[in-house]
Design a protein that fits this description.
With about 500 residues, this protein is mainly β. The protein has two helices and 32 strands. The N terminus is likely disordered. Bound molecules: copper (II) ion.
């Protein structure tokens, strides 16, 4: 099947374009600053047969229409969650950021196994991109999958600064008729309390972290009882969005009955774990964080901040709600699938498929996706610490800045055992690598949800030298200090 593969999903607004195939595309060292330790002796070039893909990003103040309510915020364009960056595995991406924000920024290419110098972490892999300054990221995207990008600067991701990044597999057979990219978000900026004010209020509690367990009962309370995720989020947002829209003015996917579609789910939220269902349908999960899984049927599933899941589903005849319910919170994110003339469901209506969601512990890797079998060369134990009241989050009893980085030697198979000593769920994210989870049949993840008082063992192959961030993808937890790094010794 080739009809799907070049479907026009590149919606132009982000200005991504495939460059020429050879001549004129000799890469140059265009980074204004590079603090990364990645060797630069080898000039960057796409994998043989692949292209140079160029693009521009212009983060700027905008007023977004969320489907009625408008929000003065910062974003890369005017149509939040609807524009897509797309390339093929092995392509060289060369993306220039023109910073039109009144603050410094950066771009992190979440989940991509790229060279360290392009990882987009100010103070670690680059200097911040100052207002008015251009900065060019240049990297090869080696692995196909569903990714996204966002700043690694303060709370900017909790504004409108994110977009999908899809890396196509030139050799994938397809097996679906159409594709839908579904981006979930929790929204307050320009409508409710600003992200900066929310964080300031948390910081005013002057919490500290220690090691050991913390049976904090100071969470939000509502809805968290009985959820395996415990306290799933700290913040009640005014709106929850699918592709930038509130339920009253939803995004609509129009298809035909019997069509087999691939939905790529991305949780770009900052403090919200969603459970997702398509009313009247059973989905088949095919990929987690970009990598193939054993195909697994799910009526609904959890997706935490920074996670991505791809599913396929055969569409029935009618109009169906796609529902993303924020765990432990009020409200809903909602979209519509229409294949026939049936009456549209009431915006925001919930569906019975939301009961008993699958979580990633029930998934395993496809054989093609597993890390080569190897006994770990080293094991590091990591404690996730902190509490809601007074608000504080850290790793191994320390906050970022006072942390002791994790260390690995090149070529090692490193095992990280994460123990969550708190009453909250933490989606832990590693840059530049994708773990294999040995207790999940080698499931590949770059963002793994560690539930309250639970442990997760995650292995990585140290094949990408540099200094790589390792942090909670609850952006408020990360900003409070639930972050450290992995360094190559
Ligand atoms: Cu966290």
């Amino acid at each position: 099947m080739t009809t799907f593969a070049r479907r026009t999903l590149l919606l132009g607004g982000l200005g991504l374009a495939a460059g020429g195939f050879a001549a004129g595309c000799t890469p140059t060292a265009s980074h204004s600053v590079s603090m990364g330790s990645m060797p630069t002796a080898t000039p960057l070039a796409p994998t043989a047969g692949q292209r140079v893909v160029t693009g521009t990003l212009t983060p700027r103040p905008v007023t977004l229409d969320l489907g009625g309510p408008t929000a003065k915020t910062w974003a890369y364009g005017e149509t939040l969650g609807q524009e897509v960056f797309r390339a093929s595995a092995g392509d060289l991406l060369r993306i220039t950021v023109n910073n039109h924000l009144p603050a410094s920024t950066s771009v992190h290419w979440h989940g991509i196994r790229l060279r360290n110098a392009a990882d987009g972490v100010p103070g670690v892999t680059q200097q911040p991109i100052e207002p008015g300054q251009p900065y060019t990221y240049e990297f090869v995207a080696p692995d196909p999958g569903t990714y996204f990008f966002h700043p690694h600067s303060g709370l900017q991701i909790d504004r409108g600064l994110y977009a999908p990044l899809i890396i196509d597999d030139p050799h994938e057979p397809g097996g679906y008729d159409a594709e839908w990219i579904v981006v979930l978000d929790d929204w307050t900026d320009g409508i409710g309390t600003s992200p900066d004010d929310i964080l300031a209020a948390f910081k005013a509690q002057k919490g500290t972290v220690g090691t050991g367990m913390n049976h904090d009962m100071g969470g939000m309370g509502h809805g968290s009882m009985g959820s395996p995720l415990g306290d799933a989020g700290d913040i009640d947002y005014p709106h929850y969005l699918i592709n930038g829209r509130i339920p009253a003015a939803p995004t609509t996917f129009t298809g035909k009955p019997g069509q087999r579609i691939r939905i790529r789910f991305i949780n770009a939220g900052s403090d919200t774990i969603f459970r997702v269902a398509l009313g009247g349908h059973v989905m088949t999960i095919t990929h987690a964080d970009g990598y193939p899984t054993v195909p697994t049927q799910a009526r609904s599933f959890y997706i935490a901040m920074g996670e991505r899941y791809d599913v396929t589903v055969t569409l029935a005849d009618g109009a169906f709600p796609l529902v993303a319910r924020p765990e432990g919170k009020n409200g809903t994110a909602w979209a519509l699938v229409r294949t026939g003339s049936g009456t549209a469901p009431t915006p925001g209506v919930l569906v019975s498929e939301l009961d008993n969601p699958l979580d990633s512990r029930q998934l395993s890797a496809a054989a093609s996706a597993t890390l080569p079998s190897k006994t770990p060369d080293a094991t590091i134990d990591v404690q996730l610490n902190g509490q809601m009241t007074p608000y504080a989050w850290g790793i191994n009893g320390r906050i970022f800045g006072n942390d002791t980085p994790l260390s690995v030697k090149p070529g090692q198979r490193l095992r990280i055992r994460m123990s969550n000593m708190t009453m909250m769920s933490h989606p832990m994210h590693i840059h530049g690598h994708t773990w294999g989870l040995p207790s999940n049949g080698g499931l590949r993840k770059d963002t793994v949800l560690v539930m309250p008082m639970q442990s997760v063992t995650a292995d990585l192959q140290a094949d990408n030298p540099g200094t790589w961030m390792y942090h909670c993808h609850n952006i408020y937890h990360a900003e409070m200090g639930m972050m450290t790094s992995l360094v190559y010794a």
